[in-house]
Amino acid sequence: MSEIGKNPASNEAAEDASQAAFGGETTTLMPETATALVELEQVQLRLAEAEERAKNHWEQYLRAVAELENVRKRAQRDIEQANRFGLEKFAQELVPVKDSLDLGVENAPQADAAALAEGQRATQRLLAKAFEKLGITEIDPLGQPFDANFHEAMAMQPSDTAEPNSVLTVVQRGYALNGRLLRPARVIVARAP
Questions:
Q1: 188 phi/psi in degrees, rounded to 5
Q2: For residues 120 and 112, what is the distance between their CA atoms, to the nearest angstrom?
Q3: Which conformational region is residue 136 in: left (phi greater than 0), alpha (psi within -120 to 50 degrees), or beta?
Q4: pTM for this structure?
């Protein structure tokens, strides 16, 4: 670049090129001007590269936004499907219990009391098995300390035999689904006489 000023042949070529460019006027390129032109060219090249990178980043951003939207829509569909068919397993477990109850009701007129009682126990076992598969556990707190998180006190009754604030009688059992309370156990709580 700085050789333009040192080499007379180069200077003549540069002058001829500048005469052609500026309509015949003779212009001599100074070394500072040539350096500035080279720097300008380099800046323009870096700008073009930066614009290309920016364009690529913008395209990547748009793809990421589209993918995120697709994931959101897919998740929404999955939630709708879970809401629509989430009870399917529960229903499948209860259908045999219903069948057993229907059979007991149909055969009640001609069955004796012992057969009806056995049918009820079989239905109860079917229901207990279904509850177990579904993660439903029974809360039967007889003799345990009263816990307001899992028990509902129906009354308090004096007792000589039970500890105060313990469950004296279970009026109605409670149930939990995978550790979450479905219904509290309804109990009578012991108090000191």
A1: -110, 130
A2: 13
A3: beta
A4: 0.56
pLDDT single digits (tens) 80-126: 888 777 778 888 888 988 998 888 888 888 888 888 888 899 999 99
Task: Using 50 as the pLDDT threshold, list the residues of the chain that sit under it.
Answer: 1-11, 13, 17-18, 20
Q: State residue 15's pLDDT score.
A: 52
The structural architecture, per CATH, of the domain 137-193 is: Roll (2.30)
Specify whether the CB–CB gap between 172 and 184 falls below 8 A. Answer: no
Q: Buried b vs exposed e over 34-72: b needs ≥16 C-beta within 10 Å?
A: beeeeeeeeeeeeeeeeeeeeeeeeeeeeeeeeeeeeee
H or E segment to which residue 159 belongs? none
Q: Share the mean pLDDT of the chain.
A: 85
Asked whether 174 and 186 are in contact (CB, 8 A), the reply is: yes
Q: Can you tell me which residue has the tokens 């380099």?
A: 42
Q: Where are the domains of the chain?
A: 3-83, 87-134, 137-193
